[in-house]
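It is worth pausing here to work through a concrete case rather than discussing structure prediction in the abstract. The textbook approach is simple: state the sequence, then state the predicted structure, then interpret. We follow exactly that order.
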Amino acid sequence: MIIVLSALIAYVLGSASFSIVLSKLMYRKDVREEGSGNAGATNMARSFGKLAGALTLLGDVLKTVLAVVIGRALAGDWGVVVSCLGCQIGHCFPAYHHFKGGKGVAVGLAITAMVDWRITVTVLVVFIITAILSRKISLASILATFSAIPAAFLTVKDWRYLCMIILAASIIIFRHSENISRLMKGEEKDFHFGDEKKGK
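Step two, the predicted structure:
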């Protein structure tokens, strides 16, 4: 029951979509009606600029950390595992917002940091290099997510954490299915910050 409680608390925290709240408070718009229609940090940055994207990323990371801290306090390692997954599922499918949320990248990054910093470094390096070379955040997110799996195999000894990383990565890849389709067709657009576009 404590493990289930940890998962439920994490889902509730994960369902708190900072992109939706911030877009309505700061810009009087719903981020889901802008850009790609996704409720995540990337679309916030694409639609409203660097500050909006950074605040959303920070909020998504902090809610994941809070969920994991609570999960660990309640149920130890099992609490961490179910809290990570619960938070990511809540972020991607938030009950407060008709189950239309983000793609889980920021939450996934926070999850790797809670497991092993070396996985986080691997993910960030792959993401940054791919983003710079391709200008496509979706491609960078997908490749960075894939890189977390071999990095976890090399660094994680607890099978529970390894399975959790694989499941979390699978959710992120699933949420990028439309992006993968556009990438394969050569139709995915390059990324530009919203404030950069306004300045043109």
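Step three, interpretation. The two ends are 55 Å apart (CA to CA). Residues 2-199 form one domain.
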